């Protein structure tokens, strides 16, 4: 019998359900949109998203939030699809970080009407 | 929820414990130090645009489309099923087609509608990940995606439902439905007694998101609501 993977957690012991929830931050909504668009345009599938999420393992699952995991998976899938290289990503990350200290400063948002920093989350 | 804690460590303007207008805690967004995930989101977004895969307008439209999806869509489906037996029959037979009748922006997947009655209570989970009928309920709540709910609701559903404040009678059968990437479930709650003659709109207002996941049941408002202090 195949051993179950870490993500196959149905039926395992766990702590109490904490009925917490939060409003999604702008960057999280964008991650969701990037996934939807990349899959709609055929760059990868939801199975590709899940493959990378499941390969991350239980420790990454426990220590990162939902959309933190998703953006890692979207990025990995897009690199595998050939859309951009790891070198291009590294250069872009350096460019982004050089813009400032906060998300609002580092994200160039002008073209997205209604979803810029002023829209906020709160 | 340990994996979310670091998001709250950043200095920001909101008072600790303050709630947003929708009643949820504020989350550091624009004003905290840039996180790794945020930097990656910006970089991936800009590369997708620069490579010609998407436009900024498409991203804005996708966000707007996602935000337009709320539990009100699911509640409208439930209220119609409560008031129109033919619709309910179509909904049980082919959930996707029936939801589309009411304008649900449904994806290419099956929708199975499971009905509660006096002897049966249904509850929905995705043990493997976070599959959820977003087209009817909007994005899933945090707890739906976390280990405790996913692990336990399939082996001790009564205890889990109790943690949500729902205590079911012993003679009620509990059915737990495990979603997949291609198959989503929606709970059709039992129509509460005392709602005879109510309009669809008034009925829909009783149907919360949690009722359609199956961790709650519709309740009538208190007969004599206390006026808000403000």
Automatic annotation (TrEMBL), chain B:
Pfam families: NHase_alpha (PF02979). SUPFAM superfamilies: Nitrile hydratase alpha chain. The lineage of its organism: Bacteria, Pseudomonadati, Pseudomonadota, Alphaproteobacteria, Rhodobacterales. This is nitrile hydratase. Residues 1-15 have a biased composition (Basic and acidic residues). Keywords: Iron, Lyase, Metal-binding. NCBIfam families: nitrile_alph. Residues 38-216 form the Nitrile hydratase alpha/Thiocyanate hydrolase gamma domain. It catalyses: an aliphatic primary amide = an aliphatic nitrile + H2O. Signal peptide: none annotated. Its EC number is 4.2.1.84. One of its GO terms (molecular function) is transition metal ion binding. The keyword Iron applies. Belongs to the nitrile hydratase subunit alpha family. Residues 1-31 are annotated as: Disordered. It comes from the Bacteria. Fe(3+) binds at residues 126, 129-131.
């Amino acid at each position: 019998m195949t051993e179950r993977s870490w993500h196959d957690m149905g039926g395992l012991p766990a702590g109490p359900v904490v009925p917490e929830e939060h409003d999604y931050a702008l960057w999280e909504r964008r991650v969701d949109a990037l996934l939807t668009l990349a899959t709609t345009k055929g760059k990868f599938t939801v199975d590709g998203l899940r493959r990378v999420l499941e390969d991350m393992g239980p420790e990454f699952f426990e220590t990162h939030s939902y959309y933190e995991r998703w953006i890692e998976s979207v990025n990995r899938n897009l690199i595998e699809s050939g859309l951009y290289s790891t070198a291009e990503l590294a250069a872009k990350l350096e460019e982004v970080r050089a813009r400032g200290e906060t998300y609002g400063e580092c994200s160039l948002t002008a073209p997205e009407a209604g979803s810029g920093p002023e829209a906020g989350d709160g | 929820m340990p994996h979310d804690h670091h998001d709250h460590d950043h200095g920001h303007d909101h008072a600790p414990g303050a709630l947003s207008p929708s009643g949820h805690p504020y989350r550091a967004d624009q004003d905290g130090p840039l996180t790794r995930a945020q930097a990656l989101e910006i970089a991936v977004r800009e590369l997708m645009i620069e490579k010609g895969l998407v436009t900024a307008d498409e991203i804005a439209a996708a966000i707007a489309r996602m935000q337009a999806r709320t539990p009100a869509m699911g509640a409208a489906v439930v209220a119609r099923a409560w008031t129109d037996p033919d619709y309910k029959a179509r909904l049980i037979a082919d959930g996707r087609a029936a939801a589309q009748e009411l304008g649900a922006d449904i994806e290419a997947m099956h929708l199975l509608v499971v009905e509660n009655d006096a002897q049966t209570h249904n509850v929905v989970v995705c043990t493997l990940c976070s599959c959820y009928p977003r087209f009817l309920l909007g994005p899933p709540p945090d707890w739906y995606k976390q280990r405790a709910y996913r692990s336990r609701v399939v082996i001790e559903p009564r205890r889990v439902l109790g943690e949500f404040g729902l205590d079911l009678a012993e003679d009620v059968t509990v059915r737990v439905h495990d979603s997949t990437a291609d198959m989503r479930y929606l709970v059709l709650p039992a129509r509460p007694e005392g709602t005879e003659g109510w309009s669809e709109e008034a009925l829909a207002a009783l149907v919360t998101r949690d009722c359609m996941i199956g961790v709650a049941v519709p309740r009538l408002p208190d007969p004599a609501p206390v006026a808000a202090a403000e």
